[in-house]
Specification:
heterodimer, A: 273 residues, alpha+beta, 5-stranded antiparallel β-sheet, two-stranded antiparallel ribbon, 16% strand, B: 165 residues, mainly alpha, Rna Polymerase Sigma Factor, Chain: A, Arc Repressor Mutant, subunit A, 2 domains, globular
C-alpha cells in the first residue's frame, strides 16, 4: 500500500479523517522509511515551535495593550456622544451599560500598568524603553527648531519664556477636541491626564508632529515633541513607535488614571483649570 | 458588535500575533513594528469584522498583508536607492539582516532562507496550528497552492536542518 508525501504530510498536520489516518498509519507502521520520514516531520514541527513559542510567552509591550484599551475607551465615550447633543452641552449621566464599558477599559489599563511594573523589574526592558525616550528627548531639542518652520504658516507654536507653547490651531484643538473625536484636520488627541502637581496634559498626534502638551498658566506648553506619528501617510515603522513612545512618556508623567470621556469633557468645559 | 468584546479578544490574541510576526519577519524589531501596525489597522477596520467569524484568522490576514506590503516597498526602496556599502547584497531587509547576524540559530537561518511564500505557509500551519483550509484563506490562495508551498518549504527545512530537527 503506497503513501504519497502529501498524505504523510497531511497526517503529520492532523488533516486526515479517521479512516484515511488509519490507512496511512498502517502503511507507515509497515515501512521504516516512512516511519523515519514521519518522525522527521514531527521533529521539524517541534523545532519550529521551540524557536517561536517563547515569543508568545514574552510580556506583551505596553504600547500594544494601551492602543487597544484606548480604542475601547474611545468607543465607550463615542457611545455617549452619539446619544446626546454634541459638546459643549452638559453630558447626562451615562447609562449603567456604558459605565461598565468605561470601567472595563480602566481595568484593562490597570492590568497594562501592572504588566508594565512587572516588566520594569526585568533588567532589559526598561533600559530599552528609556533609551528610546532618551532619543526622543534628544530629538525634541532639534525638533523644537524644526517645529517652528514646519508649522509656521498656521502659527500653532510660539516660543515663550517658559518654552515652546501651542498657539493658533494646535492650541484650539488642545482646548476643545475630545480624544474620541479621532482625526480632525490631521490632528488627533490620544489621551488626556493630570500629571504630578495637578496640571492637565494631553497627548496629541499630528501628521507632522506628535507630542505632549501640558496646561500651565493658561497656555499649553509642549513638554515633548517628535516628528510624525499621526498621519495615515506616516512611515510604517515610525507611526506606531512614535505613538508608543509618547504614551510611554505620558505614563511616566501621569498621576492616577487618564481621563475618561466624561472627565475630559468636564475639563474642556472648565478650560482645563 | 460590542466593541469591548472585540477589544478583549484582540488583546487576548496579542501573544500569538507577536509569535506570528516574529515567524514572518525573522527579526524582533520588525516584528514589534508589524504588530503595532497590524493592531492599528485592525482597530481602524474593526467595523468590517463579521461577528461569528474567527477573529484570529481575520487579524492574521491583516498582519500577513501588512508584511507583504512592507517587504514590497522595501525591495522597491532597495532597488531605487542602493547604498554603496550594501553593494550587490540587496534583497528584502529581513533576508539581509538574517545573513548578517552572526549568532543565528539553525532554525532561524533555515527559516530565513525560505522564500517568503513558503515561510508563511510553514509558519501558519506548523507553528500557528491553522488547518490547511484556514491557512489558505488567510493567505488568499487555493488550498492546493497552500499544500504545495507547505510541501516545498518543509522539504527545504528538513534538508537544511537534517538530523538536528
Amino acid at each position: 500500500m503506497s503513501v504519497t508525501p502529501e498524505e504523510l504530510m497531511a497526517l503529520a498536520d492532523g488533516e486526515l479523517s479517521g479512516e484515511e489516518a488509519a490507512r496511512v498509519e498502517a502503511a507507515i507502521a509497515a515501512d521504516p522509511v516512512l516511519a523515519r520520514r514521519l518522525e522527521a516531520e514531527r521533529g521539524l514541527r517541534a523545532a519550529l515551535r521551540a524557536r517561536l513559542d517563547p515569543v508568545a510567552q514574552e510580556p506583551v509591550p505596553l504600547a500594544l495593550t494601551d492602543l487597544i484599551a484606548r480604542a475601547a475607551a474611545a468607543d465607550a465615550g463615542q457611545g455617549m456622544t452619539d446619544k446626546v447633543a454634541p459638546a459643549p452641552a452638559p453630558a447626562p449621566a451615562p447609562s449603567p451599560a456604558e459605565v461598565v464599558d468605561l470601567a472595563a477599559a480602566r481595568t484593562r489599563r490597570k492590568e497594562a500598568e501592572k504588566a508594565r511594573d512587572r516588566a520594569a523589574r526585568r533588567p532589559n526592558v526598561p533600559i530599552f524603553a528609556d533609551r528610546r525616550m532618551a532619543f526622543a528627548i534628544a530629538a525634541s531639542l532639534v525638533l523644537g527648531l524644526m517645529l517652528g518652520s514646519q508649522l509656521h504658516r498656521q502659527g500653532p507654536v510660539t516660543q515663550t519664556r517658559a518654552g515652546l507653547a501651542a498657539s493658533g490651531s494646535l492650541a484650539r484643538t488642545l482646548d476643545r477636541q475630545l480624544a474620541s473625536a479621532g482625526d480632525v484636520d490631521g490632528l488627533r488627541m490620544l489621551a488626556s491626564f493630570r500629571r504630578q502637581g495637578g496640571d492637565y496634559c494631553r497627548v496629541f498626534a499630528g501628521t507632522a508632529t506628535s507630542g505632549i502638551a501640558c496646561r500651565r498658566d493658561g497656555t499649553w506648553l509642549l513638554e515633548r515633541t517628535m516628528a510624525g506619528g499621526g498621519g495615515p501617510s506616516s512611515d510604517y515603522r515610525q507611526a506606531g513607535s512614535v505613538q508608543g513612545d509618547m504614551l510611554t512618556a505620558a505614563q511616566d508623567m501621569m498621576r492616577g488614571d487618564p481621563l475618561d470621556a466624561a472627565q475630559e469633557r468636564a475639563a474642556i468645559e472648565k478650560g482645563w483649570r | 458588535m460590542r466593541t469591548h468584546d472585540f477589544c478583549d479578544q484582540l488583546t487576548a490574541l496579542l501573544p500569538r500575533l507577536r509569535r506570528f510576526a516574529r515567524g514572518l519577519t525573522q527579526n524582533a524589531a520588525d516584528a514589534d513594528d508589524l504588530c503595532q501596525s497590524t493592531v492599528e489597522r485592525a482597530l481602524v477596520a474593526r467595523g468590517q469584522w463579521q461577528e461569528g467569524t474567527r477573529l484570529d484568522a481575520w487579524v492574521y490576514r491583516i498582519m500577513r498583508n501588512q508584511w507583504i506590503d512592507e517587504t514590497r516597498s522595501r525591495s522597491r526602496r532597495a532597488r531605487t536607492f542602493v547604498h554603496e556599502d550594501e553593494g550587490m547584497n540587496v534583497g528584502i531587509a529581513g533576508d539581509r539582516d538574517a545573513e548578517n547576524r552572526v549568532e543565528l540559530g539553525n532554525v532561524d537561518r533555515a527559516l530565513a532562507r525560505l522564500p517568503a511564500d513558503q515561510r508563511e505557509a510553514v509558519v501558519l500551519v506548523l507553528v500557528e496550528g491553522f488547518a490547511y483550509k484556514e491557512a489558505a484563506e488567510i493567505i488568499g490562495i487555493p488550498q492546493g497552492t497552500l499544500t504545495s508551498r507547505l510541501g516545498r518549504g518543509r522539504e527545504a527545512l528538513l534538508k537544511e536542518l537534517g538530523e538536528t530537527a
